[in-house]
Amino acid sequence: MSNPSLSSPSPTLERLNQTLEHEVPALFAALSPLGRRVIFPPDIPFQAAQARGKELNATIGQITDGRGGALRLPSLARGLAGLPDERLDRALLYSPVEGIPELRRAWREHQRRSLPQELRGVPSSLPLVSVGLTHGLSLVADLFGGEGCSVAVPAPFWGNYRQTFTTRTGARVVSAPALLDGRFDGAAIAQALAGVPAGEPAVAILNIPSNPGGYSPTVRERETLRESLIAVAETRPLVVVCDDAYAGLVYDDEIPRHSMFWELIGAHPSLVPVKVDGSTKEVSFFGGRVGFLTFGVDPESGAADALESKVKCLTRATLGSPVAASQVLLLEALLSETLDDEVEALRRRLGRRVAVLRQALDGVDRNLLRPLPFNSGCFALAELPEELELSADQVRLHLLEHQDTGLVSIGPRYLRIAHCSVAAEKLPELVHRVEQGVREMTRK
Amino acid sequence: MSNPSLSSPSPTLERLNQTLEHEVPALFAALSPLGRRVIFPPDIPFQAAQARGKELNATIGQITDGRGGALRLPSLARGLAGLPDERLDRALLYSPVEGIPELRRAWREHQRRSLPQELRGVPSSLPLVSVGLTHGLSLVADLFGGEGCSVAVPAPFWGNYRQTFTTRTGARVVSAPALLDGRFDGAAIAQALAGVPAGEPAVAILNIPSNPGGYSPTVRERETLRESLIAVAETRPLVVVCDDAYAGLVYDDEIPRHSMFWELIGAHPSLVPVKVDGSTKEVSFFGGRVGFLTFGVDPESGAADALESKVKCLTRATLGSPVAASQVLLLEALLSETLDDEVEALRRRLGRRVAVLRQALDGVDRNLLRPLPFNSGCFALAELPEELELSADQVRLHLLEHQDTGLVSIGPRYLRIAHCSVAAEKLPELVHRVEQGVREMTRK
């Protein structure tokens, strides 16, 4: 869609949907009413794309020098002085709605750079740029959610899935209890969706490494999970959203680091994997809001074009275009030869925290606090024993008031420890305070 | 909402809505079903806000050094080297969902800095940060749009209002023909809404300076417009969205530069002005995506708190949080003593283009092209005479193919010239080519 030809002014919605129905029938069947009716409209950005390269181009409403360069206000441009001069203008001017082409290509390479040999041939689209991962999820929710749609999420899960899917689109989030006696249960999603009438499309969310669990399944657990998802796809079109926010942050050598997305592509004709990832955690750029949405289809396919048109319509309707400044900063980083080493150093640093935290949690009184296994991501979970009759939020408020310590409470009895924001040497003290806080409450 | 107390963990939705109904009854009456049901949930960002300042804070899932500082990847941070060291971390880490407090205060001052004496006392909320102006509009659409809601827009208008209001929320965009024989008609909105049953809330959009018109009404036209909106508010709750994207870019001295927003606050109990603005055009930061949403209420009021909670829920559901990096860059610019001069220099530069373009358009054959009055913003419109029986899009495609020139076509017979992206010395040639292109088509 980036170089629309003049002779065929704009594809019709009917043709776009026919292409999807033909090339990826399960994906088409799973589209929401909104997902079916969106198409990038032939208005300003479309017309501007057609005018690219013309000698006189008076299409776009951005202020330039007349040759495509920004009119830089020194007070604003100063902060970006670390960028090469030729890239500074791109940071100040609009991004294409689908994202900056070089960045999309660079991220696709980044995504595929360390795939196991047997997965290197699987197709994946050129990633579409979103404004952070939540925006990627909300695009998925717009495309595949909607009133009454069932969205299965392994619990405990990140609460914002409810806002993104339910509050906005009216979808029904189905909690899939994925911790059985503290162990990961790969069949939880299939069980949670068992009550949905056969043939009705559904969505499942995989968040590996997980938030709040800080857990990535083992090779065997992944296999169970994959087989279980394929079994669901036997009964209905199943969109599997791989929320790969914490991709790469894995601290145990025997745990696979690549996204389940790659193993799900082509696994079953009715299984539709979608990848949501970004630079927030992978490159530690929390303030940049650069995410990506990737489909398991060939970049040159009609399906890729059709999905790009639909996503661009949604992005334009909600945000206009994604953040050029952050995209340029991320592109600079991806082009740097030292980036991989910097990311690896960060992973090792977090790995040390995880080791310290594990040791500290190993020593806690199981009558007060039951740590769950964790091996990846930014978090660890501890469960309050049911017999204490304390809610996680009661404990959280007690810790704030009496232990000068902040944690996040989840569900009825989980406490989430974000080791990503605590120095290693403070973690034993933190665990001590949590234990102490719970003890105080049991004595009341 | 930025410092939630521990004793009252989170306000209920019922209480929030009661506050709005009591303090701003017309605004409450105009809320969409979605607008009524949203409230910032007491999950991670809420709990993290409660934990701010605690000695051990393990709430937020962002990677830090344990003392709130970013773990900067050199390849990423390099591009932002122009920022003072103490602000670099804020650019790399998450923004609060409502925006960075100093920026919100600085933008409020920026908004109010050149108000006429008689308007300096009007209340306005602390602006909420959005991801560019389109996101601000989509927040308004979520709050006040929805299935069947009438949204009146003076025509010709920016086509993306359709995506933002209709595609996303199902609202009905009502075109209000605001050009009568090439002159601005301040009563167009009232006429367009006349058919909507009395008592039913409605939305009107004011885009001054306008896109695509490049027009700002005169003092007298503003007065007509204001009175006409007040008359509508006699019959129904009326949300007036001031899309101030091009605020300040006014080139005729007798045309008021301040937003109509300020004159509408308090104008009628049933009139609800909302301001959408941002740094995209005002500070020429197209790639930054920093917008603001402002209500005509006191920053310390319960209504301001309630609206903030609702907007934060919508932002979190769609985007997580706004862009910290761009906010920090904008804050740096706003703190600069030379910014006003830089913006003024830019305005004068565009003013010269406008003068050149006017002169060129004055000379065109009115049988081929009829320029409309323009005095502000980034654009000028020319109308194709009806008797030529040419559509604007036919002419646009002809100009691309035969004159190496790109314009935007709008509605049946308008061509939009974005002088903001063409150098002054090229504008006469551009006008010549458009005239020439139309002439060629009439000879076929």
Written account of the structure:
Two copies of one chain form a homodimer. Chain A is α/β, with parallel strands linked by helices. The first copy, chain A, has two domains: 97-335, 3-Layer(aba) Sandwich (Aspartate Aminotransferase, domain 2); 340-442, Alpha-Beta Complex (Aspartate Aminotransferase, domain 1), CATH 3.90.1150. Chain A is 42% helix and 14% strand. Chain A has helices spanning 13-23, 25-30, 33-37, 44-51, 74-77, 85-92, 101-112, 132-144, 160-169, 188-193, 219-233, 261-264, 279-282, 302-319, 324-335, 339-362, 392-402, 427-442; strands spanning 56-57, 128-130, 150-155, 172-177, 179-180, 183-184, 202-206, 238-243, 271-278, 291-295, 370-371, 379-383, 405-406, 408-410, 414-418. In chain A, the strands form three sheets. Chain A has a seven-stranded mixed sheet with strand order 2-10-9-8-7-3-4. In chain A, strands 11-12-15-14 form a four-stranded antiparallel sheet, with helices on one face. The longest helix of chain A has 24 residues, at 339-362. At the A-B interface, helix 4, strand 1, helix 5, helix 6 and helix 8 of A face helix 4, strand 1, helix 5, helix 6 and helix 8 of B.
Quaternary state of this entry equals homodimer
Beta fraction of chain A: 5-15%
**Count of distinct strands of chain A:** 15
The portion of residues assigned to helices of chain A is: 40-55%
What is the fold's blueprint, element by element?
The structure is a homodimer of 444-residue chains.
Chain A: H1 13-23, H2 25-30, H3 33-37, H4 44-51, E1 56-57, H5 74-77, H6 85-92, H7 101-112, E2 128-130, H8 132-144, E3 150-155, H9 160-169, E4 172-177, E5 179-180, E6 183-184, H10 188-193, E7 202-206, H11 219-233, E8 238-243, H12 261-264, E9 271-278, H13 279-282, E10 291-295, H14 302-319, H15 324-335, H16 339-362, E11 370-371, E12 379-383, H17 392-402, E13 405-406, E14 408-410, E15 414-418, H18 427-442
Parallel strand pairs in A: 3-4, 3-7, 7-8, 8-9
Antiparallel strand pairs in A: 2-10, 5-6, 9-10, 11-12, 12-15, 14-15
Helix pairs in contact in A: 1-14, 6-15, 7-15, 8-9, 16-18, 17-18
